[in-house]
Amino acid sequence: MKSRSTIKGLMKRHPRLSQLVIVALCLVMWEVAARFFVDKMFLSPPSRVYGEIGRVLGTKGLTQALTLTLYEVSVAFVMAVAIGMIVGLSVGLNDFARRCFMPIILLLYGIPQIVILPLFILGLGIGPPSKIAFGVTHGIFPIILAIVAGVQGLKPVLLISARSMGASRWHILRYVVLPHMLPSFFSGMRLGMTGVLLGVLLAELYVSTAGIGYFTGLFTQNFDPTRLLGLISILAALAIALNEFMRMVERRFSRWRGND
Amino acid sequence: MSAPVKATLSADQHERRLSRLVQLGFVASLALLWYLATNVWGMSPLLLPKPQNAFEELLDILRSGEFWPDLLLTLGELAGAFAISMTLGLAIGFMVSLSPVFVRIFEPLLAGVYAVPIILFLPLYVLFFGLGASSKIALGATISFFPIVLNTIAGFISVDKLYVTAAKSMGASPTVLLRHVLIPGALPIILSGLRMGFTVALLSIIGSETIASLSGLGHRIVNLAESLEIARMFAYIVFVIAIAATLNSMVSRLEASRSLDK
């Protein structure tokens, strides 16, 4: 009992430190399991994975594959934001259009898109275009929903007063609508980025000739857990970095509103 | 906006009817476009089958009952994955919620792992568990664990401390406290976590069947795509979407009814 409460006291005083300790414990368990209990055809210890990150990156064609995947993600993201913006604004700004098309958009969003992945491959081939398209269809819905929601909260009095003071359509969009929807726009962008990443990774894992999906398949078939885990760690780190970046942008641009 | 109330009401009804009409028109024109593209403009049936062919195939699939083995396998994987993630998610979530210190420490860790697209582990799971059902169950359980555990934590810490103090001061035992205060208070948030977990488990299981598998509904679609039986593949896609929609709406309805109960 006594020792338990001191451990708890320690945890209370240093939450950051205890998080590090927990992560370290997990790594140690992994290390022990991989060194002594699991066949090394299937799992390799974290120390070895970390030590051989260089060898992973040195695999012929792998840096190009990472670049290609990042390129697919960025093109898909830009397209999802552009199309999502246009659809979201044209549906969200008009009451009648919202009524007509929001149910259809929500219905489409509910479809498990993975079942139509083979269609994308049949239609667009196994190269980057199908991955980009699949990323776009995953990322676009959260963006549309966020923009519609952002526009919806707009107080009519702001629109009316802007209009009565002689603002043009462009002025209203630029000085009233856009600033108002910035916070939800950026949270939509973040969710959209998550969606794009998921879509591109799914399509890459499904079929790939030069992207990272090719290498995950290769390492799996060669029973090379060291390089597989290395590649997965690199990708996970990239995903977390992208996510944190979007979060930072979101915080930066919603600051002016305070905490409402 | 400035019209009298009475006029707005009937205008509202009018608008509702009009919007239904526009929706119908939109769907009908898509269907017409599909028909025209395949039957009149001669679009390749390898890219888009004729709608009537796809419909015939769908009837054939339903009549022959050949979908049963795949459907049962996919549902079995889903049940296994959800049972694992629900048990672990509820248990771990409850234990973490017992102390604010644990919440401060574990919640950010779990949320941090949740930010990684877990689909990345699929190749690893295929390496560990092979191409069969177990790799799908493992992936589905991993992916659905996070929304369940995070919502369980959020649910239990959302319970008003006043109720807990009141119940304790009136002499409630830990079991009574849990049964009559904590669980009812946390239930709505936990249920929505379970619903999210169910949805993502279904998605990830169909997804992993599509990517690397030997059987199951997702694999069936890929198989038909590879043998270029496109009309039948479309029929299967419609079938799977209908199954997924049914399951998801069942779970949503369950959640809504349980939340309203109290």
Question: Layout of helices and strands, plus pairs?
Answer:
The complex is a heterodimer of chains A (260) and B (262).
Chain A: H1 2-13, H2 15-37, H3 46-51, H4 53-58, H5 62-92, H6 95-110, H7 117-124, H8 128-152, H9 156-164, H10 169-206, H11 212-221, H12 225-253
Helix pairs in contact in A: 5-8, 5-10, 7-8, 8-10, 9-10, 10-11, 10-12, 11-12
Chain B: H1 5-39, H2 51-64, H3 68-97, H4 100-114, H5 122-129, H6 133-158, H7 161-169, H8 174-211, H9 217-226, H10 230-261
Helix pairs in contact in B: 2-10, 3-6, 3-8, 4-6, 5-6, 6-8, 7-8, 8-9, 8-10, 9-10
Describe, in plain words, how this protein is organized in 3D:
- The complex is a heterodimer of chains A (260) and B (262).
- With 260 residues, chain A is an all-alpha fold.
- Chain A has two domains: 2-37; 53-257, Orthogonal Bundle (MetI-like fold), CATH 1.10.3720.10.
- In chain A, 82% of the residues lie in helices and 0% in strands.
- In chain A, helix 10 (169-206) runs antiparallel to helix 12 (225-253).
- The two termini of chain A are 44 Å apart.
- The model of chain A has no long low-confidence stretch (mean pLDDT 86).
- By secondary structure, chain B is mainly α.
- Chain B folds into two domains: 1-43; 64-261, MetI-like (MetI-like fold), CATH 1.10.3720.
- Helix content of chain B is 83%, strand content 0%.
- Chain B is built from ten helices and no strands.
- Chain B is globular, with a radius of gyration of 24 Å.
- Classes of the chains: A mainly alpha (260), B mainly alpha (262).
- The interface between A and B is large, with 50 and 51 residues.
